[in-house]
Structure formats: structure tokens, C-alpha cells
Write a structure and sequence with these properties.
Blueprint lengths: L1 H28 L2 H10 L8 H31 L5 H24 L9
Helix pairs in contact: 1-2, 1-3, 1-4, 3-4
Amino acid sequence: MKASRAGWLGRVALPVLSLLLLAAHFYRSGVYLLVVAAIALTGLTFVARPWARRVLGLALLCGTVEWSRAAWGFATLRASMGLPYTRLLVILGAVATVTLVSAYLVWRNDNGGGPETD
């Protein structure tokens, strides 16, 4: 039972959470096409095909890059204004880490977590 909960967490919950956080980030930035894309990608968590896992993992990896880019940009802006930015970096670093872990778990679950076979 614990293994199935852990599998569900890695296969569904964390990727969906990561994609919804990305959708909120894009919404706040006004990039509505990426909002729709991030929400649509949540559906791939329920597709049990290798291609879906790869697309989802790649999207989450791109999300990690976006969180890192946003953290750097916001921290640079706050530093130039003489405002504290440590808390911002900790929070966005944690969000980027969760997104990266989600990508890892999605790829690990690809093909049952074992080596690919033809």
C-alpha cells in the first residue's frame, strides 16, 4: 500500500502540482498560451505511454529552467533596488527543486523504472 502511494505521488501528484504552479506563474506573467499548455500537460500524467512520460518530463525540466531564470531575474531586480532577496531565492529554489524532482520521478516511472527494451 505504501509503494502504491509513493508511486501515485511521483507519477501524478508532484507533476500536477508542479505544472499548476507553472501555470500560475505564466498567468501572472500574462503568457496565456503557456498557461493553457501547462494545464493541458497535466492530462499526460494519466497517459500510460512512454512518449507521454518523456514529453511530461521534458516539460517539467523546462519548468525547472524557468523557475531558475525567474529566481535570478527577481533576485537581481530586488538587489538593484536594495531590497532583501534571500527569502525569494529560498522559495523559488524550493519550487524549482520540486519541479526537478517531479521530472526525475516521471522519467524514473517511464517504462516501469527499468531499462528500455525494444
